[in-house]
Design brief:
- Residues 261-334 form the CusB-like beta-barrel domain.
- GO terms for molecular function: efflux transmembrane transporter activity.
- It comes from Brevibacillus composti.
- 36% of the residues lie in helices and 33% in strands.
- It is an alpha+beta fold.
- Among the domains are: 39-51 and 337-409, conserved putative lor/sdh protein from methanococcus maripaludis s2 fold (Beta Barrel); 102-219; 255-331, Efflux pump adaptor protein, beta barrel domain (Elongation Factor Tu (Ef-tu), domain 3, Beta Barrel).
- Helix 3 runs antiparallel to helix 4 (166-195) and helix 3 (100-160) runs antiparallel to helix 5.
- The longest helix is centred in the first third of the chain and has 61 residues, at 100-160.
- The protein is elongated, with a radius of gyration of 52 Å.
- The model is unreliable at 1-28 and 30-34 (pLDDT under 50).
Length: 414
């Protein structure tokens, strides 16, 4: 009997041993799972403060006028009295080109004008004589035609009475025909003479010569180039002996009183600015602030910059300000809010479905809360409803959050 029970005991022991070795590990607790799924975020605190709607941009000073001056004609520079930085007045000589060939051209055109004038006088005299001759010839032909017509009528009457032969009748008809032809020719000559063709050609030649002479004189005058505006020489690109032409400027003049700030505003900012808007221009290199006004606003967006150009005029009577100096321009918007309001960092707010939200820390989770906002700058925004002073809100890491998700704060709000 004892022999039969021993295999059964051994088999039971083996089963228990295998079951003990294959027992699964304990499952992690709920706390461990939540800790592993927490999203790291940075937070800040809702505080009371003030927000100003002033906005600013960085730009550069530019001349109010810049003129690149090149000659209207090509020629060799023989005089260049100005140099870089010189102050020049409108009408002052900047440079001169060689005038010898141009002066010769003027002399030639003057001679051509005199020849044309003499030709006109001769044509006028010849035309008058021709008119007299043509008028006399027409009168003679008209009288001859009248005589031939009267003779033909008389001969016809005699021929019908049988007093003359048919040959005599034919001679009378032929004489009338010839007189008619002579009259038509004389009339045509008279009409042609009245048109004064030669005189008109001579007058046209004289006008052409006068225009050519005027052009030659203007070309001679263009050899002396003067300043079109008051200003300063900002560049000299030529030298005595160099060939200059219309393609490239020899001297550049700029007007630096006043100077301009040329800036570009976004679609949102341009609606707050108009001609006359007061601005503050800060020049960091001089540690100086200047009060100025907007003097020009483009109604059309620059399609390359996707912004609206504006200009601000700054007086510069003593020349202290220089073109291309970097400036900071502040546009005065609404006055800063006098009473303190709830403010948070602008980056904490996000838009969704036409509404604005923030994530507020509640316990260990982030709750998505709808808020109503007010004035804002690039850094701060006023909260009108939805939050309370002292609330902690997420300022970084929102894109990884969902409403109610557990968070891990990696900074401490002050």
């Amino acid at each position: 009997m004892n022999v039969k029970k021993q295999p059964v005991i051994l088999a039971l022991s083996a089963v228990l041993l295998v079951a003990g070795c294959s027992q699964p590990e304990a499952a992690p607790t709920d706390t461990q799972q939540q800790e592993e799924s927490a999203t790291p975020v940075e937070v800040d605190q809702v505080k009371k403060g003030t927000v100003s709607s002033e906005s600013g941009i960085t730009a550069k000073l530019a001349p109010s006028e810049e003129v690149q001056i090149s000659p209207k004609i090509s020629g060799k520079i023989i005089d260049l009295p100005v140099k870089l930085g010189d102050s020049v007045s409108a009408g002052q000589v900047l440079f001169k080109l060689d005038q010898q060939d141009l002066a010769n051209t003027v002399a030639q055109q003057e001679a051509a004008y005199k020849v044309a004038l003499a030709g006109l006088k001769q044509s006028g005299s010849s035309t008058d004589q021709g008119l007299v001759q043509a008028r006399n010839s027409l009168k003679q032909a008209e009288q001859a035609l009248a005589d031939a017509r009267l003779n033909q009528q008389r001969m016809k009457l005699l021929f019908e009475q049988g007093a003359i032969s048919s040959q005599q009748m034919e001679q009378a008809n032929t004489a009338l025909t010839n007189a008619q032809t002579a009259f038509e020719n004389a009339k045509q000559v008279w009409e042609t003479s009245q048109q004064k063709t030669n005189l008109q050609v001579s007058e046209a030649s004289l006008n052409q010569a006068a225009v050519a002479l005027q052009n030659a004189k203007e070309q001679l005058a263009n050899a002396v180039v003067t300043a079109p505006i008051n200003g300063y020489v900002s560049s000299v690109n030529g030298a005595v002996g160099q060939i200059a032409g219309p393609q490239s400027p020899v001297v550049v003049i700029v007007k630096t009183n006043p100077l301009l700030v040329k800036a570009n505003l976004s679609e949102a900012d341009i609606t707050k600015v108009s001609v006359g808007t007061a601005v503050k221009v800060s020049i960091p290199v001089l540690s100086k602030d200047v009060e100025a006004k907007v003097t020009a606003v483009s109604p059309v967006m620059n399609q390359q910059l996707k912004a609206y150009p504006i200009e601000i005029t700054i007086p510069n009577p003593d020349g202290e300000l220089k073109a291309d100096m970097v400036v900071n321009v502040t546009f005065a918007g609404q006055a800063a809010v006098q009473n303190e309001q709830l403010v948070i960092p602008r980056k904490a707010v996000f838009d969704r479905d036409g509404k604005r939200y923030v994530y507020r820390i509640e316990g260990e989770a982030a709750k998505m809360v709808e808020v109503t906002t007010g004035e804002e700058t690039s850094d701060l925004i006023v909260i009108q409803s939805g939050l309370a002073e002292g609330d902690q809100i997420v300022v970084r890491g929102q894109t990884l959050l969902q409403d109610g998700k557990k968070v891990s704060i990696i900074n401490k709000s002050k």
